[in-house]
């Protein structure tokens, strides 16, 4: 996810040289092990994750590793990690390096953010995964979000959902109901500010786009005309700016009323900027992703009652779901083995292990999450089919990254009209391509 791009663990690159082949007839067990190692097929993956010490306390990594071990054992392959390290790449982000490596066909498998999935899919650098056995069980939303030019170019191990993290104790003390609409949310902020909470909403420079996307596309994804509306946006008969304006006006109002500290948000990394005040009960509301409620080092062990809800829209609380995913180099030297690895780690059996370990939403419609009580309101909406996609590779104008950057323009003093002009300019560029 974007906020962690520059903060990923600094670890060595995987891939050691193979030892010399043992001489025939040598019964030394060490040589036999060495020979087996040399004959093992290798798949390389570029990822923010590394193979970890088994004692390391990182649930997300251990969940992925369990499924990778299943693939290694079933297929007799070895997966080697090529790990992003910010210090090594200086000013290049994880995404920048991923794009460079994919274009130069340096690896077999990649763990990618939504904007990179779309860009690399459009350049035909990612293999079509629609033929995998595992795709038969995928939720439709996963296929929709990661299909480019008719090809399914990426599949995640989990569906990421963003929501509002609410200190329910503070809301109860202030006699506030959990908000459903933008108007109700603003009223909650007004009361909280009157009660002495100087900045009711803790924000960072990455995730305020979730408010915008929820309000922009509530009708598009829940009104029954999704395909036709996206086609109108892609051919220019509809304008992205018309969809985006209400969300940007809402954010501007929050800034003007002092419910968000725009200057602090503009320079704050996710969690680091607002997490401490939220946990200290100085800030009643933050926005974050599903896994943050499970992770004790983030918001998984608060000293108050936590409740996670969707973002306010005229259709009620709305989860926002961007899609990361595994993509395969279309020119992979080990294409057959790489696709086989994906088929194992994305199988229902492996996803059940991943989901139970990580307590996240599975991309498989057959695997259900046993979520913690705090996440139930968010999960209920998703299970009802009520949500907004934060990324959709079927839209010519990439959503997640572009909206994030234009929201940052707003935080830095741009007007709503100027932000809308930026969307119009970007849309015009996509029509010229």
Task: Note down, in words, how this protein is organized.
The structure is a single chain. By secondary structure, the protein is an alpha/beta fold. It is built from 18 helices and 12 strands. The chain has helices at 29-39, 59-75, 86-89, 94-103, 114-122, 140-145, 168-173, 182-194, 209-222, 226-235, 240-256, 262-267, 275-279, 335-345, 348-358, 376-383, 400-411, 416-432, and strands at residues 41-47, 77-83, 109-112, 147-148, 151-152, 162-167, 201-202, 285-289, 306-309, 320-321, 325-328, 388-389. Strands 2-1-3-11 form a 4-stranded mixed beta sheet, with helices on both faces. Strand 1 (41-47), helix 2 (59-75) and strand 2 form a beta-alpha-beta unit. The radius of gyration is 23 Å and the shape is globular. The two termini are 28 Å apart. Mean pLDDT is 86; it is low at 1-27, 29-37 and 51-60.
Structural class: alpha/beta
Radius of gyration computed on alpha carbons: 23 Å
Number of strands: 12
On the 0-100 scale, what is the average pLDDT?
Answer: 86
Looking at this protein, list some descriptive labels.
disordered N terminus; four-stranded mixed β-sheet; 433 residues; globular; 43% helix; 12 strands; single chain
Quick synopsis:
The protein is an alpha/beta fold and 433 residues long.
Which helices and strands appear, and what pairs or packs with what?
Layout (H helix, E strand, L loop, with lengths): L28 H11 L1 E7 L11 H17 L1 E7 L2 H4 L4 H10 L5 E4 L1 H9 L17 H6 L1 E2 L2 E2 L9 E6 H6 L8 H13 L6 E2 L6 H14 L3 H10 L4 H17 L5 H6 L7 H5 L5 E5 L16 E4 L10 E2 L3 E4 L6 H11 L2 H11 L17 H8 L4 E2 L10 H12 L4 H17 L1
Parallel strand pairs: 1-2, 1-3, 7-8, 10-12
Antiparallel strand pairs: 3-11, 4-5, 6-8, 6-9
Helix pairs in contact: 2-14, 2-15, 9-11, 11-18, 17-18
